[in-house]
Amino acid sequence: ELKVEQNPLFLSMQEGKNYTIYCNYSTTSDRLYWYRQDPGKSLESLFVLLSNGAVKQEGRLMASLDTKARLSTLHITAAVHDLSATYFCAGRNYGGSQGNLIFGKGTKLSVKP
Amino acid sequence: EAQVTQNPRYLITVTGKKLTVTCSQNMNHEYMSWYRQDPGLGLRQIYYSMNVEVTDKGDVPEGYKVSRKEKRNFPLILESPSPNQTSLYFCASSPGGPDIQYFGAGTRLSVL
Q1: Residue among B31, B42, B102 whose CB faces A88 most closely
Q2: Residues of chain B predicted below pLDDT 70
Q3: Interchain CB contact of A27 with B (< 8 Å)
Q4: Which of A46, A89, B5, B101 makes an SS bond possible with A23, Cβ 3.0 to 4.6 Å?
């Protein structure tokens, strides 16, 4: 059974700084997903990482996947206040049906001036 | 406008009174899914559907039912709600499989 662990769970950053959110998963997952949730809002899909070494970037966010290490990272470059949100990663439960997703608990990011 | 619509947005009910939360998408997506979000527990998948008439359990299906009789609709049914089903519920859809999902606005349910 797939388990997904994110860290840190809370992250307070200053504007302009760089930081990385880590997403570890316990068993084989053939793809890894990242989502964003603004405070009090719904979720938005950010990235789908399909294979080892995959890297996707949008704006100040860059996600990567290392299937051998069972690790995905979400790197934030030169943070701005607008990036304050909760970020979730999720893995597809490889041993189960293709539609079953397992989420991490989320990383609440707060970017301060 | 492409969207996933959930109704109602807020619901307060009492233990044991059957309820249905509707979810509808207008994007002709094959995949639909229900999640619940609880503080400290993150998101957990309840049920999902890869296509019409195909549904499968997620991690926390107990106490819930779903049906997918047509592509656009995926209602979540609580036959006998209990207080531990008090939560924030999200419906989502995607073209095929759980890849880029589009989420509804959420339904906040309180069971007293």
Answers
A1: B42
A2: none
A3: no
A4: A89
